[in-house]
Amino acid sequence: MRIFLLALGLMLIGLWLNIVFNTYVQIGGLKINWILMFMLILTFRHSKLVIAFVGILAGLMMDALSHGIMGLYGTSFFLTLLLISQVNKLFYANTFFAISLAVFSMSIFEGWISLSILDMFEPGLELSSKMLTSTLPLALLQGLITPIILQFVIWGENLFLRDVA
Predict the structure, then answer these.
(1) Is residue 51 in some structural domain?
(2) What is the CATH number of the domain that holds 73?
(3) What is the pTM for the complete model shown?
(4) Structural domain boundaries enclosing 48
(5) Does the N-terminal or the C-terminal CB of the chain have fewer CB atoms within 10 Å?
(6) Is residue 113, in this structure, part of any structural domain at all?
(7) Which tens digit of pLDDT belongs to each residue from 56-89?
(8) Is residue 32 part of a domain?
(9) How many CB atoms are closer than 10 A to CB 74?
(10) How many domains does the chain have?
(11) Could you give the CA distance from residue 139 to residue 32 in angstroms, rounded to a whole number?
(12) Burial per residue of 135-157, b for 16 or more beta-carbon CB atoms within 10 angstroms, e otherwise
């Protein structure tokens, strides 16, 4: 129950950052997907299946913000978080570099899933050019910002998930 509430709280903070922060700060014209970053880091730290289902809600909120196809982000977030929760122990070490690399690679994976789903609805979409011009630079930027978000997630874990006597 506590991990659900933590995931929900971090998702809402990510939603607030997407709405407010991305309006004023865009590094290189790229809008950081704060919700995805929080959900990825939380899934890497806790391989609970409930986080993947919270990811569906997070993705639907991103769909509502993007004014695009409903379910696109919900599906891609769920599949990405589900993959992470299943193979997390194979390649994850709890260091800043490892989690930055993992967020970078999973951001690329999520972008590929989103663009593939979008390609089904819009057949003339250039998948490779979109990957190179938007998804790859955004994933790199998210990987560089990950240590700051990781510190915030650790603070939230210490606040909400500590043992209660």
Answers:
(1) yes
(2) 1.10.1760
(3) 0.78
(4) 2-160
(5) C
(6) yes
(7) 888 888 888 887 788 888 888 888 888 888 887 7
(8) yes
(9) 18
(10) 1
(11) 9
(12) beebbebbbebbbebbeebeebb
